[in-house]
Amino acid sequence: MGKINLRNLRFYSFHGCFDEETKIGSKYLVDVCVEGDFKVAEKKDKLDQTVDYVELSDIVALEMNIPSKLIEHVANRVLNAVLNRWKKIKVATITIKKLNPPMNEYVESVDYTISLNQSTFK
Length: 122
Fold this sequence. Notes:
CATH architecture: 2-Layer Sandwich
Mean pLDDT: 94
Oligomer: single chain
Shape: elongated
CATH superfamily: GTP cyclohydrolase I, C-terminal domain/NADPH-dependent 7-cyano-7-deazaguanine reductase, N-terminal domain
Strand order of the largest sheet: 1-2-3-4
């Protein structure tokens, strides 16, 4: 089983429960990992036998541009879109990190991680 990792995709998005967050926006970092059997791609050197990481990043960008109250919701939408697109992915994992979230105390970031399996995905 192989893994393809996209690390530190950078976005400026408008997610949050407070009105200010949906108007002002915030910076986010996103990591995505997809796992699957990519042995054919290893041998044949053909893009259609693997997961195109450019298309993968485009899916993340599309979903990050749709405002949500919760990053949990965004993360689930991304993984659903990814697993719908590539059936060869066995496991997909995403971490969305919100930088400098509005809180009473200073915190550098808050993040959420979720993994979905193709076998249990619906």
